[in-house]
Structures are given as C-alpha cells and as structure tokens.
Amino acid sequence: MIAIQHLTMRLPAAGHEVTILEDITLDIPEKQMVAIVGPSGSGKSTLLGLVAGLDRPTSGSIRLDGIDITTLSENAMARWRREKIGYIFQSFHLIPTLTAAENVAVPLELTGDSSARSTAESLLRSVGLVERLDHYPVQLSGGEQQRVAIARAFACRPPILLADEPTGNLDSATGHQVIDLLTGLHRDFGTTLVLVTHDQDLARLAERVIALRDGRVESDSAISG
C-alpha cells in the first residue's frame, strides 16, 4: 500500500541545507494501523506530509498502490489525493466561512457527487454532530471541530487516512473520543491508518510503532495483542 524508498528531505536555512529526513525506507501494508512517534523536530510531520503529497522530497520515492507519487504533476497529485488519501490536521484546517456540513461536503462536491450534502449530514451524524450541521467552526469546540475534520477526511472513503497529532489540541476526554472514531474507521472499513502522535494511549492502540529521531528511523516495532 505505502512503499517508501531512501526518502530524504533537505531544506535551505540561513545559507545552508538542513536535513529533515535522511534515507527513510519503510513499507506499510494495507489495513495496518501505524503510529509514528519521536521527539519534536524528529521529522514526523514532514514524513506524513510527504506521504500525502503535500510536499516533495529532495530524493527517494513514495509509492502508493504502485504509483510513485513523487513523479506526479500537481494536478495529478491533487486528483490522486482526493481518491486515495484523507488527511487530518492537528489544527483542524476547517474553512471558517463554511458550516460543518458544508466543510464535509467540499471533497464530495469536488468529485461531482450530487448527494454531497446528504452524505455530509450522514457522516456528521455518525460522529455525533447531528445538532451542529449548520454551525460554523468558530461556534464549535476543539473536539467538535476535530470530529468535523475526521468526517471530511473520510468523506470520499479513502483507503488511506493520515492524521497529524489528531489529539494534540484536545483535552484527555475529548482526545479519547477522537481516538475511538479513528480506530473505529480503521476497524470497520479496513482503512490504512498512519498517525503522528505524542499520545502514548493512541500509540499503544497501533499494530506497529515507528520511532524517528534526528530524521532517521530509530526503531520499528510490531505491537502484540
């Protein structure tokens, strides 16, 4: 499902290059739940953004379903992302001028789905927000905004869900609700779920934990039980 080969990311800074990721090679099979952990600055979010095609690496390849996304044009990557990838941001990234239902409907409308509104309402109902359909992001709590973001990310039923610190801005109780939602999607739909997290409760639920340090893979462990 996800095959990463010799991935390196360097960025210019103050007249020289800074290495963010160095020679990362990983294979993540379909339907696996993987937690990516490590200290701040270890390259976790950069790696997730590269897998989503939000950035391009300095070198190396990322193959999703056999397609090397690093070779795709911007338009082709946008189409591929729409079909294959749901991305959940720590800071939600909801459109402030759209209601909850309208935010969730956006990716469906981009595919020309004539039932976008009704599907969005159904998705929001499934995440417990049926009373918040016509509320704007500013009228929602952090936990409610994250649930809207999850519904939007899953609107087109992508086979891959990527989540960057999905519980990072939430209190413990709300974070556990979000964890339940994500693990439920993984379990019920066979979604490949890759999470960047500092949340040990969330990491313990994964089938595999990949630890990064200084831009390299420090450990890659299967979790039993």
Quickly describe the structure.
With 225 residues, the protein is α/β, with parallel strands linked by helices. The protein has a single domain (2-222), classed as Rossmann fold. The protein contains seven helices and ten strands.
Layout of helices and strands, plus pairs?
Blueprint: E1 2-13, E2 16-28, E3 33-37, H1 44-51, E4 59-64, E5 67-68, H2 74-84, E6 85-88, H3 100-110, H4 116-126, H5 142-153, E7 160-164, H6 172-189, E8 192-196, H7 200-205, E9 208-213, E10 216-222
Parallel strand pairs: 3-8, 3-9, 6-7, 7-8
Antiparallel strand pairs: 1-2, 1-4, 4-5, 9-10
Strand order of the largest sheet: 6-7-8-3-9-10
User: What's the number of helices?
Assistant: 7
Structural class: alpha/beta
Radius of gyration: 17 Å
Q: What is the chain-wise order of helices and strands? A: EEEHEEHEHHHEHEHEE
Mean pLDDT: 92
> What shape does the CA trace take?
globular
Task: Report on this structure.
The chain is α/β, with parallel strands linked by helices and 225 residues long. It has one domain (2-222): Rossmann fold, CATH 3.40.50. Helix content is 34%, strand content 29%. The chain contains seven helices and ten strands. The protein has helices at 44-51, 74-84, 100-110, 116-126, 142-153, 172-189, 200-205; strands spanning 2-13, 16-28, 33-37, 59-64, 67-68, 85-88, 160-164, 192-196, 208-213, 216-222. The strands form two sheets. The chain has a six-stranded mixed β-sheet with strand order 6-7-8-3-9-10, sandwiched between helices. Strands 2-1-4-5 form a four-stranded antiparallel β-sheet, covered by helices on one side. Helix 3 (100-110) packs parallel to helix 5 (142-153), helix 4 packs across helix 5 and helix 5 (142-153) runs parallel beside helix 6. The protein is globular, with a radius of gyration of 17 Å. The mean pLDDT is 92.
